[in-house]
Amino acid sequence: MRFVDLGLIKLPEALRRQQETVLRIADQDGPETVYLLEHPHVFTTGRLGKEENLLAKSDWNGTSIEPISINRGGDVTYHGPGQLVGYLHLDLRRRHRDVHLFLRNLESSLIRTVKRLGVRAFRRQGLTGVWSDQGKLASIGVGVSRWITMHGFALNIHTDLRYFQLINPCGLTNCPMTSLSRLLDRSVSMGEVKGLFQKCFQETFRN
Fold this sequence. Notes:
Layout: E1 2-8, H1 11-26, E2 33-38, E3 42-45, E4 68-69, E5 76-79, E6 83-89, H2 99-115, E7 130-132, E8 135-145, E9 148-156, H3 180-184, H4 190-205
Helix pairs in contact: 2-4
């Protein structure tokens, strides 16, 4: 398994890299790969996206909001600077062909990551993602092609949380969002979290 730090990258380029990586792994021509990155401001909507979950047509700067539809599960979400995005490409053909197990393990790796920073996080029954006592901390939405996973998670580090007020995050009404910096009342570096996540992810997936 390899981890690749893409830094700040636009969504279309990241999608292209994902598609190429999925094909290589499916053809047994490349290793399982985890991309860690940030996106410029962008809204995306998954296969279950509903128009009513977009609450505004533009932000407070007058910039129009036009979500990009992508082939992941879930509804509308926001990505932006200060948010750690992980695109995960694992071969489920040798991981029990179990998407639900993959999702639960991904949640566990995120919960373990933030615990090492001193944040208590947990699951909510019947929902996918990671929560804290003060709101949702990480959103998860994945796709699977030829039993190779794609897309992944978005963990709020020092994200501008105002953007979540423009949507029903993941289709959930009255869903406050929070970040590690807010919960810890200090600046949390992206590099620190990337390193911790890589360790916790490898420990969880044992590979």
